[in-house]
Here is the input.
Amino acid sequence: MANRCSNLHKFFKLSGLVHGSKQTHAKSLSSSAPAKAGARLDALARFLHGTCSLKCFRELHALLAVAGATGEASVVAGLVDRYLSLGKPESAASVFAEAYRRRPVVYSLNLAVRCFADYGFHRELLDLYRELCGFGSDNFTFPPVIRACTAVSNLRLGREVHCMVLRTGYGDNVGVQTALLDMYAKAGQIDVSRRVFDGMVRRDLISWNAMISGYTLNGCFQEAVEALQEIQLDGMRANASTLVGIISMCGGVRARVTGDSLHGFALKCGVVADESLTSAFISMYAAFDDLSSSRLVFDLQPVKDLVSCNSMISAYMQHGNCSEAFEVFRLMHCAGLGPNLVTVVSVLPSCSDFFGINHGESVHGITIKFGLTEQVSVVSALVSMYSKLGKLDSAVFLFSHCAQKNHLLWNSMISGYLVSKGWNKALDTFHKMQVEGVAPDATTVINVISGCRHTKDLHVAKSIHAYAIRNRFVFNQTVINALLAMYADCGAISTSYTLFQKMEVRMLISWNTIISGFAEIGDSEASVRLFCDMRQADVHYDLVTLIGLISSLSVSDDATVGESVHSLAIKSGCDSDVSLTNALITMYTNCGIVEAGQQLFDSLSSRNTITYNALMSGYRKNNISEKILPLFYHMVKNDEKPNLVTLLNLLPICRSQLQGKSIHCYAVRNFTRMETSLFTSAICMYSRFNNIEYCSRIFNLICERNIIVWNTILSAHVECKQADIALDLFRHMRFLNVKCDAVTMLALISACSQFENADFAACVTAVILKMGFNATVSVLNALIDMHSRCGSISFARKLFDSSLEKDSVTWGAMINACSMHGDGKAALDLFSMMIDSGVDPDDITFVSILSACSHSGFVEQGRALFKLLQADYGITPRMEHYACMVDLLGRTGHLEEAYDVVKSMPFRPSDSLLESLLGACRFHGNSKIGDWQME
Here is the structure.
């Protein structure tokens, strides 16, 4: 740069233009030959265009000003052009205004206007024109000025220029009229654009192309096609620019026949090889879901260019064909075609969605090689990719090292935290974004709302809502629908419904969101009522509406309404959709109609993983576990990949530890991230086979231990008869300040019951009372049972009497306690009190009261209760009920009646029941019945 500056000084010294006053300079010019002066100015002009440094150029400008050469038109044009190329439009405007202080020549104004337009300084061009438009304009001035109005969306100024055009008599100029019709079309005023076009006396191909482009921009497909036909009638030959807009629109309106015709027309006109048309045809066929035709167009291109490669990659990515998209990217790279911003942004999602970190890092390396990592949109795509691949540290590194962060990059980082379940970090990033002065957009707000939905923090949710109101985001339908879902997920469905009622315009997605919100909390009545309101509002339902409605009915035991919705789905033609059928299978199996779910499953021509999971869950819910494994084998045979839900259905029904280990190993091999629910299910499975060592190993693998994990390991140790270790784990929980729940207390009570120590039971009770869990009915029932087993029947009765809310289990626990301690009279009194209080006894309560009668020898009461079991409460006697009756009759010597009870059983008696009867026969010396029994 220093050499260039010294060369400038040398040049001016040699030319004699630097030293001396203006008068000396004037004399030398007057005495010199005109040709010599002109040659010097030409040399200066050439030197202007060769200067690349702003500092050097400013020095050259200063020297020219001292020399008095800035009045020359060629020098002014050179200065304006160079300042614009160096990104200094203000300096360029200042040079022009200074040179033509009095009255600029229209030719010079046109040159300046053209320079500003070429370098994209449209606002500065309009500012300059406002100052100088009074000095005159011609047909070369107006087109770039009108195009600048279009570029900055300043329709008001464009209309003023239009008026000036009409006043100055240039309204019939083809170039001016073309610029005007293009401006009105891009401003959405296609009718005004058409009036300008109709008023044209002479039309060239550029005018027709502008009109067709206007039609396509405003969605007027039929008018665009008719304009193309008129071009042919006028005898003009269409070019690539004529066709590209219509071809692009064919895909949007699904006009396959027209698209094929235009392809044939392009072949006939010989313009099909144009790179813009190749790209348009690739995108068009992709919109028709005809990727084979898109690929054929791409393959037939003799020389592949960057635009067509990008179109092919985008076409594959839009249809989820990640491998084919990456293959085109690889071929492009092998052919020596360097990627651009569009290429990288299109291909990076394939790495996160299909391939993996190795492909992603390779693409990252290519972006570095080609210098694309300074582009904010590329950094945003990289941040998104690394986040989805679980490399959050890499995403944060790229984000923090980007100098210029726009809202797109901030949104990518917030989304990255959401993908990685870093809800609080996402909210912190949203706060930092505002601190750094970057204005959030609707996408940002929707992302933050998504974070609130997962944290379920109602206070933060309300703050985000307030922010959306202050910044007028509530007028955005997508934001308001996200708010509806947020409140529903935060457990504030009433707030969600209030917000829904306040909406002036309720779109289909709004109805779907509120219906799904009520479905999530199992309020089927509200969901059905809203669906009826939706129909009355003339809003037509869609597939999502029906799925939400069916999901709400899945929690109901009555399938009548569900069958009606099923009929509606068949009538509307939605019943063939797999997602809807999956929801129907879940609904029918939850309502106990497993056969209907099985028929729906069998009727499907194509099934996905969710279909198999729905039927498996139905089998589990209805205790048909023997059908789950055959269904799983069928699933694997049909190449459907099991997911988390599949394994959660399989682990609880494993018949052996080997089966459980196989499922556990499959999860380790195939899942990149093990969910907490899978860990807890595996612990439960191993505890069933008394393998507490594996339970402890899995527990130690879990990094983030929530209360569910702690409860699971506590229950596992209790189940494996290791109550002492369970109590140690409880103490460790308290040390770590883990918040306990009712399930924790139940596990603790079960552990205490194994000790059968009254003093220890009193300590556990004190802990439970202190933590306030005594008001929980299930915990109170367990306490009553624990104290009765530890011999504290009086304290158990105190707990029972202190209970404000008693269910059948509470009564049953107290009756069983009396039975265990041989107080049959107290048990019968409690049973009578239970009936009087309006609580119906269940089958377990009858086992307890019959057992009490057996222990106390109350034969008549036992007989009456056994009859009451079936006659009044419709309970089918189980093995336990028959065993109690046989034991009661056997103890009291009614052996023949006991034998009649055994003979009346609808199923084979258990060994323990027969042993009880044989023992009674031996005790009472009745060998006859004993012999009959042996036979």
The mean pLDDT is 83. Residues 124 and 531 are 56 Å apart (CA to CA).
